[in-house]
Amino acid sequence: MHEIQQKLVMLSADKDITSMKLAELARLVEIPSLQKVKHHREQVIKKGLVKVPTNAKTITELKNYLTNGMSIVSIPILGSANAGPAMIYADGEVTGYLKVSSSLLPTNYRSADLFALRVVGDSMNRSNISGQSAENGDYIIADAKQPFTPQTGDYIVSLIDGKANIKKFVSDPKNKQIGLLSESTGDFPPIIIGENDGTDYLAQAKILRVIKTPSLA
User: Which of 25-29, 109-113, 173-177 has the highest mean pLDDT?
Assistant: First the structure.
């Protein structure tokens, strides 16, 4: 048994760890990572190693929790992407998790199939991605499944010389090039990439949704 699970089982002897807040639980077992504590709590509950509350409502809620019945899912954030010139290096490191209601996500997708990027810039502030524009400070949700072949009209995440960029994709086989187009209130020229120009280019993922940043105004 994993040492974190051992600590949780010992703690459950006199505490209800199933309903305890993760921060408090992490403090008691002396583990700084809330994600690890959450994972191992789920494991000891599934294995039947801890006391389960006898209250019927609590049991139903717990069952829903363990079968992904909760409406909040965690999408890994892989940093930021420019909605403008490609200027931010993309190293694929998870910088955090975006907590999103499942009702805001595409159907038929698991959270493992998705990743998020924070939008930097205004070159896509008039885009229409499933009815939402991608404005500075918003988050985009993209399809992580590979391989990916973009189609004309797709909103995509591109890597240009290792830097992440958000644009609308247009194939132009007649001129042996592709275009990455802005949709903005500002004047942002397209990015044109020819098939033989030596640019390190990768169409990384299709953008599926925009999660708007809440406004206090």
Answer: 173-177
Burial class from Cβ neighbours inside 10 Å (0-12, 13-18, 19+) for residue 52 reads middle
- Strands 163-172 and 177-181 come out as antiparallel
Q: Do 34 and 122 fall into the same domain?
A: no
138 has a pLDDT exceeding 90: yes
pTM above 0.70, yes or no: no
| Domain presence at residue 216 | no
| d(C-alpha 162, C-alpha 86), whole Å | 9
Cβ–Cβ under 8 Å, residues 208 and 143: yes
* Residue type at 13 in one-letter notation: A
The span from the CA of 149 to the CA of 83, in Å, is 20
Boundaries of domain holding 28: 3-66
Angle 10-38-70 from CA coordinates, rounded to 5°: 125
Neighbour count for residue 193 (Cβ, 10 Å) = 16
Residues 95 and 149 in one domain: yes
